[in-house]
Structure to design on (934 residues):
């Protein structure tokens, strides 16, 4: 008996220990599974860049294919037909980026809690309430009607799944092992969720609720002063003075209602710095008489990078550039004939409608003199190590009632439905697949017709010397200020009536000034016949970019590189003289004077080793904090006036309501605020020096640009990158945002297309690959890599580090 | 001889487990050896512990050397372990314990059916 007990005891002990080592508990990863030498994380370590490529195993090809990798680890796929081409793209992208692809989809569609746990629940709820999945499903349905595109999308999905099917635990990407979950099958829907996730990142940001609240408090006059739509200094994308020879459909402005009952809390906003620049230069302006196209999408800097470089070649395609892992084709790139790049065309395409439900069952809502039916969707959010969370979201014909008492314990009467252009069906992938094989400017214009959103400023050039820029996207026609504040969902006249026809979209072709450019600024002057609005037009980068392009006459490749890496701070140039003027240097201590003299001498370039940029940026943010502190007493979601308006007010008004701090007895002047902020700045900077044990405060150290792993794992991320620039400079590298891909393309009438590019990260998304951090250093330094681009497989080229030819007979 | 032989068999079997199989299959051979050979608990445990532990140290060291610690340096920060060497020892000890437990479970299984032969002094042989 004793022996049996001992056996059972040992059996249970061994079994339990093994079980614990094989499963995750709370935050402790399954140590045995993760750390064992057979298929644990050790298997994800790569001794060189090539070894991993031996895994390529494409089993469902129709014809022979050749795949070559260059020293940057860019795959060059030479296929004999388009289906094989996109099938291989899906496979090879998944090989390097599978975890990221799936993670991005889970994040966008609100399924992160499933793998991360409770911490992601609020975020997931917001994503569900935005209707990302609803939008993706509609778009998928529409896209299926376009058989040609659909065939290629399906091939791409097949490729991804082929890779997934051949995986076992041993070769799961490391993140799956750390979080202990499995890759799931890829679907066409996921590819569409990716596009919605881009829309979410780039076009979902709005401040309608905040502004309605501010308007109620401040009154129209003050509100307009603090949040103006236009300024005389703007340098719009479509140059000033452009004549428009068409008229907008006239809309009658309906009765406007005032709403006082607003949601207290609004969605987490997409990052404000999501912005970019692009430009194309005509042959008349370049030294060698060629066209140059440059594109720099400014996005969240992450590892694995949002971009994956690829070269796609088949009898119909020969295109190269940055692709989005999860989407077929090239998103920002070039081919033998043309090149194109996008920046975000910020415009208010999200509006909020106040919904009046008939009763608490919320099954009907008022629309004109009718009651319309709602649809209830129960969202099941699975939570790791916990029970699933259920959220009921009501859908109206406008869209989901995102803000209601389920969301933030607002009153039962506070119901707002989201009308977002991304909810509409569209066929964006068609645009890219057409652009990828465009041969001239007409092909490009044709391709852009199908692009609905997230609206983008497409700058492009062709080898025949044409350049152009089109603001492509679906925009509702609005009456003045429609949708700037919340709208009445019960009044049909408040609804979007129609959309701006493609022929009336903003566009320039071969302008006299010899270049086209954009940097998220205003699209045009107010003379454009259609009303447009955004709370978030960039006020500085566009002007600097245009200044540079105008002032250089015989532009060469090096100039283009210099422009992309330009660190001139237009903001400091305009603001610093104003605030320096308001400080009484006599009253400063010796220590403060040292800083004062230093900042007075600044040339406004935020280079990485500059020591004045930290002073200015901290000083300016202190001024804004001290000046607008009354805003912080508000209990609802709000926003503050931006830097541009703040500096304008400081310049124009000696006396202004907000200068005085109402919590103190004395009446403060702006000079008091500026001086006080300066002294605070000096203190913080001295503290910074002490804390970091540094005698000098270099800009790069102070701002700390970093490329963060998507899970925020420190050792998978790179901190303190040696790079200058900041959010309002052309080289817009701030802490976590920046030029996520720099591309320059030279298009020549007689020569082959040439291109240079760099992005902060490696092609391999595996932290265990020597390639993982590649690119970051050179990117920071402003160096470029020449991209290898050819019409056919290269033989005996030293830049090809790996080749695989799969012969099908 | 018996002890060394068993340790060697466990070591070699632990070295050659294919990556397709789950890691805990290391238990199988030690369990079988435990239930086949007559010895004492300590000797059995040590044969599993040393066999697998040493095999793991060898496999991991060769991977880590080949890949120049590219990933282990990052993982130790995630797990808050001080150094890669420490991690290697730690995981090898864990592997050794699991394997050792496997052998004595096997041995206790044997003991249910077969009584121990005459008592001997403790010796490694």
């Amino acid at each position: 008996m004793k022996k049996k007990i001992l056996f059972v005891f040992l059996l249970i002990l061994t079994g339990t220990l093994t079980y614990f080592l094989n499963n995750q508990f709370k935050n402790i990863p399954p140590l045995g599974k993760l750390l064992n030498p057979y298929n644990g994380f050790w298997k994800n370590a790569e001794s060189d860049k090539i070894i991993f490529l031996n895994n390529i195993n494409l089993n469902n090809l129709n014809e022979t294919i050749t795949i070559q990798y260059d020293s940057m680890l860019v795959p060059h796929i030479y296929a004999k037909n388009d289906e094989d081409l996109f099938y291989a793209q899906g496979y090879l992208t998944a090989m390097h980026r599978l975890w990221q692809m799936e993670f991005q989809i889970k994040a966008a569609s609100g399924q992160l809690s499933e793998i991360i746990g409770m911490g992601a629940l609020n975020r997931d709820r917001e994503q569900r309430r935005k209707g990302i999945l609803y939008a993706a499903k509609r778009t998928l349905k529409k896209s299926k009607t376009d058989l040609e595109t659909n065939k290629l999308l399906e091939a791409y999905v097949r490729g991804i799944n082929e890779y997934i099917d051949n995986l076992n635990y041993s070769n799961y990407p490391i993140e799956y092992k750390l979080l202990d979950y499995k890759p799931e099958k890829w679907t066409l829907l996921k590819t569409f969720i990716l596009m919605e996730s881009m829309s979410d990142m780039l076009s979902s940001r709005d401040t309608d609720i905040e502004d309605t609240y501010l308007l109620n408090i401040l009154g129209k006059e003050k509100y307009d002063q603090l949040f103006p739509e236009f300024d005389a200094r703007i340098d719009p994308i479509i140059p000033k003075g452009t004549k428009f020879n068409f008229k907008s459909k006239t809309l009658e402005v309906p009765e406007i209602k005032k709403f006082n009952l607003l949601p207290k809390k609004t969605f987490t906003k997409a990052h404000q710095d999501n912005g970019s620049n692009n430009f194309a230069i005509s042959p008349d302006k370049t030294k060698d008489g060629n066209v140059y196209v440059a594109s720099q999408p400014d996005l969240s800097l992450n590892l694995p990078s949002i971009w994956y470089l690829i070269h796609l070649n088949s009898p119909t395609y020969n295109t190269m550039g940055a692709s989005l892992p999860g989407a077929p084709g090239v998103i920002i790139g070039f081919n033998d004939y043309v090149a194109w790049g996008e920046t975000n065309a910020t415009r208010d395409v999200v509006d909020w409608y106040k919904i009046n439900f008939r009763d608490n069952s919320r099954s009907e809502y008022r629309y004109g003199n009718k009651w319309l039916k709602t649809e209830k969707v129960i969202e099941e959010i699975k939570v790791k190590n916990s029970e699933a969370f259920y959220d009921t979201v009501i859908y109206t014909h406008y869209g989901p009632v995102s803000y209601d008492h389920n969301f933030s314990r607002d009153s039962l009467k506070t119901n707002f439905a989201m009308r977002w252009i991304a909810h509409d069906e569209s066929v964006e992938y068609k645009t890219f697949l057409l652009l990828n094989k465009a041969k001239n400017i007409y092909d490009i214009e044709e391709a852009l017709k199908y692009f609905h959103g997230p609206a983008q400023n497409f700058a492009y050039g062709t080898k025949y010397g044409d350049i152009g820029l089109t603001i492509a996207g679906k925009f509702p026609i609005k009456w003045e200020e429609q949708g700037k504040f919340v709208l009445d969902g019960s009044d049909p006249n408040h609804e979007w009536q129609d959309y701006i026809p493609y022929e009336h979209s903003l566009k320039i072709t071969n302008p006299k000034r010899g270049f086209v450019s954009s940097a998220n600024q205003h699209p045009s002057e107010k003379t454009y016949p259609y009303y447009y609005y955004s709370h978030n037009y960039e006020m500085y980068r566009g002007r600097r970019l245009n200044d540079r392009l105008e002032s250089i006459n015989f532009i060469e490749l090096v100039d283009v590189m210099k422009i992309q890496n330009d660190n001139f701070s237009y903001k400091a140039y305009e603001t610093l003289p104003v605030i320096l003027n308001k400080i009484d240097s006599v009253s400063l201590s010796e220590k403060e004077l040292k800083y004062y003299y230093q900042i007075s001498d600044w040339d406004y370039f935020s280079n990485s080793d500059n020591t004045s940029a930290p002073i200015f940026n901290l000083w300016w943010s202190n001024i804004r904090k001290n000046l607008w502190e009354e805003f912080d007493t508000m209990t609802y979601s709000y926003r503050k006036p931006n830097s541009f308006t703040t500096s304008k007010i400081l310049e124009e008004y000696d006396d202004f309501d907000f200068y005085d701090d109402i919590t103190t007895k004395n009446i403060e002047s702006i000079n008091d605020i500026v001086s006080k902020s300066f002294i605070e700045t000096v203190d913080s900077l001295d503290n910074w020096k002490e804390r970091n044990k540094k005698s000098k405060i270099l800009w790069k150290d102070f701002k700390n640009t970093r490329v963060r792993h998507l899970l925020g794992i420190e050792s998978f991320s790179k901190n303190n990158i040696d790079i200058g620039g900041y959010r309002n400079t052309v080289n817009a590298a701030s802490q976590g945002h920046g030029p996520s891909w720099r591309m320059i393309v030279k298009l020549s009438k007689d020569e082959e297309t040439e291109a240079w590019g760099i992005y902060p990260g490696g092609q391999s998304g595996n932290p265990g690959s020597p390639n993982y951090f590649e690119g970051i250093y050179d990117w920071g330094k402003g160096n470029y890599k020449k991209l290898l681009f050819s019409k056919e497989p290269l033989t005996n080229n030293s830049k090809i580090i790996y080749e695989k030819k799969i012969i099908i007979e | 001889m018996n002890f060394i032989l068993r340790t060697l068999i466990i070591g070699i079997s632990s070295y050659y487990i294919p990556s397709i199989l789950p890691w805990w299959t290391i238990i199988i051979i030690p369990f079988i050896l435990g239930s086949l050979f007559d010895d004492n608990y300590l000797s059995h445990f040590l044969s599993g512990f040393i066999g697998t532990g040493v095999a793991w140290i060898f496999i991991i060291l060769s991977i880590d050397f080949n890949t120049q610690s590219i990933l282990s340096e990052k993982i130790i920060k995630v797990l808050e372990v001080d150094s890669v060497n420490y991690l290697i020892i730690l995981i090898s000890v864990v592997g050794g314990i699991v394997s050792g437990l496997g052998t004595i479970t096997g041995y206790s299984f044997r003991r249910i059916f077969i009584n121990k032969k005459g008592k001997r002094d403790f010796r490694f042989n």
Notes: Residues 1-35 of chain A form one domain. Chain A is about 30% helix and 15% strand. The CA atoms of residues 479 and 549 of chain A lie 35 Å apart.
